[in-house]
Recover the amino acids of this structure.
């Protein structure tokens, strides 16, 4: 299904405007549906503008339509599932004037304009103001933009100078990192009107504590079925467990296409998304482990490994069994041991919202109806029914092969928590939660999940698949991080795309980063899961103009890929990327049924050596810069095509990370002293030239 945005959203507008989404069957779709015995009964829209919750699209004159009131910005949306992905949001050409031509401008540090209103805000009970990370107690307060001349924290007879960290939307954040054992403190400041003020005393007895190992890591996402085929003897096992065995709306249609196996480099076929198998497995991952080592990978995230009915694995048949197409438990043990031996942590994909048709509880309901002891594990609308008929039971996004679990049922919750505990005890280092907002009893469920997971391994990592900025998940009682598409796609990708200052300026990027970092506890920022692309998005290089699957990327698109990853690697938290991005692979969201071409099997013999070398070098440089591995972040400059910020604690090693998305070089004014580019070795004083579509990691040279 394809949803089209009819009205572009003006960037930077504060007021909401009506935006219409429509649905009409793509050309050829009815014939495909008829071939498989299907019909379109309902259409829904899920997007970042309403936290991925389902909104029904009302039919009208053969075309479905929904109108939403949206403020200016860029939004991700999903029309149907899993056949469409999209990013909406186009600039208003009148929003700002075109950039001037002529001499290269010199961009200096951005400074807020005084407003005069103090509007002091600080509460040590709120993690966004007080948290513990990188062996320092982060203390922050919020005030009116430009309203504070200086500020200090007084604790245990000492004064600790604070610095202005962020500014946005008429406010600013001041920050200091105190020794971790300090429990009582006051904040003293002087206003822009030369008036002194003292706040406190405050107690910081139970701050949120961050996972420092995360920010020191580089993450790598593995979609096992399309990673590498290391054992051809298990390829047929995929057909033995496929959804086709259980889906009567499919397997009882004599004209329907059955699941099938393909050679590794065969073209995408009719069932590419979900039921065309290429043989990727855990043995293949073991073969390629040295590749990950050379990239400096410290964390591996596996898409679902458990027995399921598809290539993607989100339709679980057995939560306690490794999918036979991938291997077995003994092989998984080898994988974990080998990764751990190389200093890598491994997390698994946890799917609590829905199961597949082959799940034992669902099959019991199919056979026994209300007499089944698992009847209340699901929400059944009528029985008997044909498995695969989405009108007979609640599903994920109207997909009949994904019956939705009733997690409000204590038995279901208990079962799922036991699954998580089992695999944590087996040796995983954390988990990523698929579609967490689908759980009806969210707070209760995730607090207990956190208790169970951290009870097995206190430094385990819990990541929630939330696509938008939402600090409610990050208060120390649910997730450690969100999948930060709100950073990677809404900020980093938009900046790296270029297209002129009017599209997305350095100032706008800096402001958008400030909005997130002001809302999130600094401990959370330091353990952020930062990504641009994944198994649910087009390839990053495709998003940056590199072309469709198999196309040869242009030099500019490759430069913009380097710019995007340089920015991602410089932000606090962990940069994580999808398999194959390091090879410069492309892949788009194709038309149904040959869709999700970003999941095409990795053609390792076509890996671009220059792109791979860049990722390897970037990993080594980041590993050598301690300032890039902690949570500290300070806005520095954002003007025109330039974005710059400081990383690291004042007085210690500091990195000035500077980025130029423009097609011409730009100059950046520097703080005093000599600065060395950690990538090129060049040194600069007073100002540094930033290459076109390029970046620098500038480190203050030791006298």
């Amino acid at each position: 299904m394809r949803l089209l945005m009819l009205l572009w959203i003006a960037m930077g507008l504060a007021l909401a405007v009506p935006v219409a989404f429509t649905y009409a069957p793509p050309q050829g779709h009815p014939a495909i549906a008829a071939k498989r015995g299907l019909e379109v009964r309902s259409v829904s829209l899920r997007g970042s503008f309403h936290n991925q919750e389902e909104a029904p699209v009302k039919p009208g004159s053969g075309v479905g339509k929904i109108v939403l009131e949206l403020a200016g910005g860029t939004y991700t949306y999903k029309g149907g599932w899993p056949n469409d992905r999209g990013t909406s949001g186009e600039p208003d050409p009148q929003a700002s004037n075109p950039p001037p031509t002529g001499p290269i401008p010199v961009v200096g540090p951005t400074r807020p304009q005084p407003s005069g209103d103090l509007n002091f805000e600080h509460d040590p009970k709120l993690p966004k103001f007080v948290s513990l990370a990188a062996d320092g107690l982060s203390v922050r307060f919020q005030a009116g933009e430009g309203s504070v001349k200086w500020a200090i924290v007084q604790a245990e007879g000492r004064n600790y100078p604070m610095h202005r960290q962020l500014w946005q939307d008429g406010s600013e954040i001041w920050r200091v990192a105190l020794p971790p054992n300090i429990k009582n403190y006051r904040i003293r400041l002087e206003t822009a009107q030369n008036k002194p003020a003292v706040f406190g005393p405050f107690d910081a007895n139970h701050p949120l504590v961050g996972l420092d190992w995360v920010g020191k890591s580089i993450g790598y996402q593995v979609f096992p079925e399309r990673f590498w085929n290391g054992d051809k003897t298990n390829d047929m096992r995929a057909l033995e467990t496929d959804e086709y065995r259980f889906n009567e709306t499919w397997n009882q249609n004599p004209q329907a296409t059955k699941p099938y196996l393909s050679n590794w480099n065969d073209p995408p076929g009719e069932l590419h998304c979900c039921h065309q198998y290429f043989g990727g497995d855990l043995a293949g991952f073991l073969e390629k482990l040295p590749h990950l080592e050379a990239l400096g990978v410290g964390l591996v995230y596996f898409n679902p490994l458990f027995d399921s009915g598809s290539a993607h694995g989100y339709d679980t048949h057995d939560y306690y069994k490794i999918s036979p197409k991938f291997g077995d438990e003994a092989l998984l043990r080898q994988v974990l041991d080998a990764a751990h031996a190389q200093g890598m942590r491994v997390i698994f994909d946890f799917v609590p919202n829905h199961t597949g048709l082959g799940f034992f509880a669902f099959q019991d309901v199919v056979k026994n109806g209300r007499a089944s002891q698992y009847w209340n594990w699901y929400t059944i609308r009528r029985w008997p029914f044909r498995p695969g008929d989405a009108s007979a039971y609640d599903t994920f996004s109207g997909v009949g092969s994904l019956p939705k679990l009733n997690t409000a049922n204590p038995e279901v919750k208990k079962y799922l928590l036991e699954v998580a505990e089992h695999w944590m005890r087996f040796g995983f280092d954390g988990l990523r939660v698929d579609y967490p907002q689908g759980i009806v009893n969210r707070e209760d469920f995730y607090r207990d999940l956190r208790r169970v997971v951290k009870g097995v391994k206190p430094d385990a990592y819990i990541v929630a698949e939330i696509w938008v900025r939402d600090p409610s998940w990050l208060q120390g009682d649910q997730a450690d991080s969100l999948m930060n598409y709100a950073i990677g796609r809404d900020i980093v990708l938009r900046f790296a795309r270029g297209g002129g200052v009017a599209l997305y300026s350095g100032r706008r990027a800096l402001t958008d980063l400030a909005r997130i970092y002001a809302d999130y506890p600094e401990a959370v920022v330091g353990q952020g899961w930062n990504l641009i692309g994944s198994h649910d998005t087009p390839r990053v290089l495709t998003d940056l103009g590199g072309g469709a699957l198999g196309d040869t990327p242009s030099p500019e698109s490759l430069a913009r890929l380097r710019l995007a990853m340089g920015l991602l690697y410089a932000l606090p938290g962990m940069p994580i990327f999808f398999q194959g991005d390091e090879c410069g692979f492309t892949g788009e969201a194709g038309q149904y049924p040959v869709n999700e071409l970003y999941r095409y099997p990795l053609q390792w013999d076509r890996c671009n050596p220059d792109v791979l070398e860049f990722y390897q070098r970037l990993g080594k440089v980041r590993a050598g810069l301690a300032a890039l591995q902690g949570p500290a972040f300070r806005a520095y400059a954002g003007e025109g095509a330039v974005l710059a910020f400081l990383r690291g604690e004042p007085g210690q090693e500091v990195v000035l990370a500077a980025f130029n998305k423009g097609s011409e070089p730009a100059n950046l004014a520097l703080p005093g002293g000599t600065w060395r580019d950690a990538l090129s070795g060049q040194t600069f004083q007073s100002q540094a030239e930033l290459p076109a579509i390029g970046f620098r990691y500038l480190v203050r040279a030791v006298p």
Summary: The chain has 15 helices and 35 strands. The longest helix spans residues 410-426.
